[in-house]
Amino acid sequence: MNKPDEAQLFDSDVQQAERRWQQAYDATASSAQRSINRSGIEIKPLYTPHDRAREDFFDDVGFPGAYPNTRGIYASMHRGRSWTQRQLIGWGVPEDYNKRLKEILAHGGTALSLIPCNSVYRGYDADEVPPELLGTCGVVVNSIEDMDIALADVPLDRISCALNDPSPFTLLALLLAVAKRRNIPWQKITGTSNQSDYLSHCVANHMFFRLALPGARRVLTDHIQFANESLPGWNPLSVVGQHTQQAGATPAEAMGFTVAAALQYAEDCIARGMDPDRFLPRFTFFFDISISFFEEIAKFRAGRRLWARLARERLGAKDARSWRFKFHGQTSGVDLTRQQPLNNIARVTAQAMAGIFGGLQSLHTDGYDEAVSVPTAEAARIAIATQNILREEAQLTDVIDPLGGSYYVETLTDRMQEEIEAVIARIDAAGGMFKAVEDGLVQRMIGESALAHQSKIESGEQTVVGVNAYQIDEDPQKYRSQPYPDPAAIDAQCARLKAFKQNRSKPDAANALDDLARSAQGTSNVMASIVTAAEAGATHGEICAVLRRELGFGQPLAIV
Amino acid sequence: MSEFASTYPPKVIVTKIGFDGHDRGSRLVAAFLRDAGMEVIYTPPWQEVATVVKLAIEEDAEVIGISSLATDHLLVPRLMTALRDAGVNDVQVIVGGIVPALDEKLLLDAGVARVFHPGTSLEDIAAEIRALSARARAMRSSELQ
User: A390: distance to nearest CA of chain B, Å?
Assistant: First the structure.
């Protein structure tokens, strides 16, 4: 047939119209301005049906809840159920935490998060560290008694618990010990071990008890196996892109590192003989949401599609639940400014919208005063209100993947995917994520990107309102900062730990710690021994001390 | 300033004390100062106060830059005391990061030369370090005379 069909006719009309537009555009002053996003992709001034080379709708975009999940991992997405509002909390002593948690639950919260004190992150009890730091950035929890107080009157069988609990997962062990004490079966415990991704900690923020890398690798695989066998409602792994992006990785790099780390963890589990369809449905992800609005949306859509393909094709998962890219998003603190801090409410709003349009499952919005101090209660309230306004006033949840089909967003999703795949290929060529981290490759890539971004701010190429543009004179004393815990409460907490150690059954605790050491020396599951030790009254610091001794202590690489 | 002093680039330690591990700031500042021609002694996070004092003496550093994101600046008064106890009086200490306004006074009163907050340009930090390095050298040469 020589007769052109309707589609071809339409196509040539569009081409003519596009040429006319291009000429008109080129004649304007703004045509010389180039725009390159944070991942290094040049952004055109206009996108049309001609920008997408790949045209197989079902292969690339499709429907929500259907492979490859580009438009979302569930059929109904936010229309069916809102994202979870998961605000991070943790400050002071267990009583402070419990009071704050109850306030949140009374205001409709259905999930808890627990941020421990930095001394806990680093593997120490309160009696091992300088007291002036205790409780300033998170709650001090060292023993089963502390955890019991922190979670007093909280229905552990009906609430999802997000624990900021890096390896060796002592907070989970203490939680399980408390549940047993309250006769709550572990099958009813639900939640996530946030911060279990030791590779992202190792390259980005070092907020963890630093076992030497091989030890950390073994403990995580044990932890995933333990959860698979004993905790059907628990997500043992949250693979974290937030750390690397906050440390300076571009959005594409952060997604690439995260997917590469997830592949590493999955392949470690498979090497242990575990079935991908047993553990992959329990993998979750956690990302930074920067203010680079469309880039973030495309990052999430591309990462979700890529993970579905890799889970199916590379890891061999057959169950559709294994392909789901479940993720939590947190608005970027690095984008926030100390100058004119109330402007940060606008930044957090734009970031949160990018996360929502990107199809996240839970969201933490930052307080506007993040660059001033640990967030105040007022700032935390506004952060939650921002989510409520976006959902219930702006009605962002009416349509699933509302930007899907946009010529720009679909093209950018494809381009971001290419960049992400290039990062993964580079990591694969270096021998996988574990090796790439051990050799410092990932750390160097992050450092270079951080410096490049800062150079753009210094040169003014990247505007930061109030910092390198639109500055005003302001009184830095004007904004209140979060107070530090009462020293008397910290003293009482230290006294409580001392009394706890005196009053517990010393032989039980000592025997459990010996068993833990033997587990670490041998091949039995270390996580099971950690839980038993917590139940027997061993403290967080004691458990960490045993593992530090048996599995080795690691230091960050000094890479600038 | 003596001829000797002006010949050599400033010598600065960039480090983090305490528990926090967020090192974007310290790595960024260290890389910039290095590229600006300074002699930079960089350490990973989690350094003990005593380690930093020892390093300052061994390396004959002129400036110590402490990066803090999550309240570790509260340990800086301990560092100032430890430096004095070790007889180190000329090394200039600066702090950069999230430091609430009220705490800035605490640090300055403890002897910190300068506190840098988020949004400071790297050029400004480098300029201040050059000035503080010159001050440390002047103190040293006056001690020698």
Answer: 29
Q: Please give the order of strands across the beta sheet that includes A84-85.
A: A84-85, A362-364, A327-331, A283-289, A237-240
Task: Tell me if A482 is assigned to some domain.
Answer: no
Mutate to test the interface with A, among B16, B17, B23, B76 (most CBs of A within 10 A): B23
Would you say A419 and A256 are in contact if contact means Cβ atoms under 8 Å apart? yes
What confidence score (pLDDT) does residue A377 get?
Answer: 81
Q: For chain B, what is the mean pLDDT?
A: 93
Can you give the pLDDT at residue A114?
Answer: 94
Q: Does B8 touch chain A (CB under 8 A)?
A: no
**Which domain CATH number covers B119?**
3.40.50.280
Q: Does A464 touch chain B (CB under 8 A)?
A: yes
DSSP designation for A509: H
Check pLDDT > 80 for residue B2. no
Q: Is A476 on the interface with B (CB under 8 A)?
A: yes
Nearest CA distance, A197 vs chain B (angstrom): 15
B22 touches chain A (CB under 8 A): yes
d(CA A174, CA A542): 13
The mean per-residue pLDDT over the stretch B106-112 comes to 97
With respect to residue A31, please indicate whether it lies within any of the assigned structural domains: no
pLDDT at A210: 77
Total domains in chain B come to 1
CATH code of the domain in which A287 resides: 3.20.20.240
Q: State how far Cα A66 lies from the chain centre.
A: 24
How many domains does one find in chain A?
A: 1
A-chain CB neighbours of B42 within 8 Å are 558, 560
Return the residue in B14, B22, B41 with the most chain A beta carbons within 10 A, the one to mutate for interface testing: B22
Concatenating the DSSP letter of every residue in A146-192 gives HHHHHTTT--TTSSEEEEE--TT-HHHHHHHHHHHHTT--GGG-EEE
pLDDT digits (tens, 9 = 90+) for A506-537: 999 999 999 999 999 999 999 999 999 999 99
Residue A429 lies in a domain: yes
Judged against a pLDDT cut of 80, whether residue B145 lies above it is answered with no
Identity of the residue in B72, B119, B123 whose CB atom sits nearest the CB atom of A133: B72
Residue B24 structure tokens: 């974007």
Contact B31 A479 (CB under 8 A): no
In terms of DSSP H, where are the helices of A287-394?
293-309, 343-357, 377-388
Flag whether pLDDT at B3 surpasses 60.
Answer: no
Count Cβ atoms within 10 A of the Cβ of residue A506 and give its class: 0-12 exposed, 13-18 middle, 19 or more buried. Answer: exposed
Are B93 and B64 in contact by the 8 Å Cβ rule? The answer is yes
User: By residue range, what is the domain housing residue A121?
Assistant: 67-476
pLDDT of residue A4: 58
- Examine residue A166 and say whether the peptide bond preceding it is cis (omega within 30 degrees of 0): no
The whole-number mean pLDDT for each consecutive block of 10 residues of chain A, a chain of 560 residues, reads 64 87 90 90 93 76 95 93 82 94 80 91 94 93 98 94 93 98 97 93 81 94 97 96 96 98 98 97 97 98 98 98 97 94 97 98 92 82 92 94 95 97 98 96 96 94 95 83 90 97 97 98 97 98 96 84
Whether chain B has a CB inside 8 Å of the CB on A247: the answer is yes
Q: How far is A547 from chain B (nearest CA, A)?
A: 19
Verdict on whether the full-model pTM lies above 0.90: yes
Q: What's the gap in Å between the CA of A39 and the closest CA on chain B?
A: 18
Interface contact A560-B102, CB threshold 8 A: no
Q: How far is CA B28 from the centre of its chain?
A: 15
ipTM of the complex: 0.86
- From the list B96, B81, B116, the residue with the least C-alpha distance to B15 is B96
